[in-house]
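Lab notebook page, bench 4
Experiment: in silico fold of construct C2
Operator: M.H.
Input chain length: 300 residues
Purpose: comparison with the prior construct
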Amino acid sequence: MVDTGSLLGLGQSLALLTYVLGVLFQTLPIPVKSIRAHGPSLMWDGIVAEFALLSVNIVRLLELWISRIIQQSIGSPFNYQPLAIATILAQLSALDASFLLLISAMSASVILAPVANALSSVLGPALTWTTIAIVIWVITQIAAGLITQIWLSAYILGIVFLAIPFQLGRRFGILLMSSSIILAIGLPLMPSMAIWLEGYLGYQTAILPLQNILSQIATNPLLIGNLLATIPQAIGGILAAVVIALIVFPFAYLFILSLFIRSLANLLGGSSGGPVLTNQIVSVSSGLAGAAAREVQHDA
């Protein structure tokens, strides 16, 4: 990644160029009104880019503050991202291996072959989605480690695109700025939040019912039969917690991050995309052509 100092210098130069162009368009005796009309907007774009450059340190401190608050709210030890991702990959790998072992064991028996075929048709999609989830978490681990190192450079690069004259890079620049901020905060927290969700669901669906049954057995031993009936329910609850937190949750979480990125981009002005370069050329050319035609008619 390019040094942040170089990117700041480039952004500063582009912001100054944009502002100077706006001053020139507004003060020079340009006969085409459509060209002179760009003067105030260019000056304003240069000022906005300058303020964006001045906000780099504030954004960096804000990102660090929000990340620490969320990590502290999740609680130890799951706020440690490598531990969380290692726990997730270990569980998914064990689940994947269990599916394969179960299908292979039943397929080895001639008597259980029809059951194995039916079971493979049921567990096949589950095995596929488990493997996809493992790939997603591995990519998340790599991306989370990378985004913490390059997000500030990506944010400044977005300001550089924002500072390009005539708003030619405005939409992409604001999208890059919002993406770098949201991903720097949200992506490293994704494994910890998944483990927290798994623990919460597992406790509510498996541990808590077992605790209630055991407390009832302590006062009335005749209820031990209810314990045997609760154990399959607890196992199913644990399996459901693993599926929801480790397989379904990452897709929902990434979708929510994309919504945050879009919302922040709209808040920063990315929804009003800048004009296309070809539109600028056509506008200026038509203005010059119209001025030349009027000059020819005046001379005639």
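Observations: Residues 4-299 form one domain. The chain has a mean pLDDT of 81.
Next step: discuss at group meeting.
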